[in-house]
Amino acid sequence: MKKYPKDQFFDENLNAQRNWDEYILKTAKEEAQKDPHPHLPIDQLIEDNTIPSFSTEEEEEDFTTELWYSNDSFLNTIMLHFIDNVDEKTRHELRKFFIGKLGPQKSPNAEARNRKPEIDEGYLITYNFTLDFGISRLTEVYASYIHYKGHIGEYKKQLGELLLNNYMMLFNLEKFNPAYKRNLPVHIQEQYNESSYKHYFGATAFVVAHEIGHHLLKHTIVKEDSMMITYKNVFIDKIGTNIDHEYEFAADDFAVDFFLKDKRYELYNKERKIDLNYLTSPLYVMLALALDTNDPTAVDGDHPPIRDRYLKLLSKLSNYCTEGEIKLLKEIFRDIVQGIQDMYKPWIKVWWE
Ligand SMILES: [Zn+2]
Question: Is residue 42 predicted with pLDDT exceeding 80?
């Protein structure tokens, strides 16, 4: 009997959401009903794009349409985007993927699950809410930072307050105040939303492409009769070698190329230059992971230090832009990381230089 990745995911995670969008909307509605003066009114959340708006009954029925590649519509969209932009052979493989989104866990995590080709019909990736949430909050910090820095008009002070609020949100969600964004003029809000959407899309696409990389580079194949530990990319016979580190770097490399090389992507502008909001986004995945440790220069179990992955990513990204652009990305990243360090001191040493 062949096993499909979607079935495997729901068999192993009995409480997993079938449809994350539906779940989030339902939860938000319940919260709103419970509290007559909710801290975050649902209308506001919809207006701020925090949750999707499905206002009419007809639209709500959209939830029943099949999510082929994930139990989350955004991850599904990313898979469709990849499927649209790869060669025929890769497309054939991508159609066998399923990305199962899990709820909050202790640490941010995405994983390409080991597979036995004799049994497994496809490829399973799991992606937890904790990583997604970390990325989305950092996206807000990034978007407010670049708008604050780039703005020379009368809204500088408000953009600074928005940036500060987004920094605080990283460590204390209660501090979230939608008014900071809402009070900005519409055209600035639109620009802000555009950069944050692109950045969030890019970062999420990078994570997905990284895990696709582990699968397509055959890091996840387990022989039927082997004694290897399953469910984790740690193989018993590899203890003492650095091969898992090589796998991580290879998957990062794969992910950047997979996401960025195709010129048909909407991420290239008219001058065939890549949009910097997309280009810089993989770095913030590293930052999301770094927020989970006090020393990103240390080896983390089977994973290489985040600092090493960050530096390798920077040099990989430099294949896709000019020297000046990579310098700019570095400066923005360092400023943002320094800002976090100044406010909360999450790290015992400087890892981003
Ligand atoms: Zn990996």
Answer: no
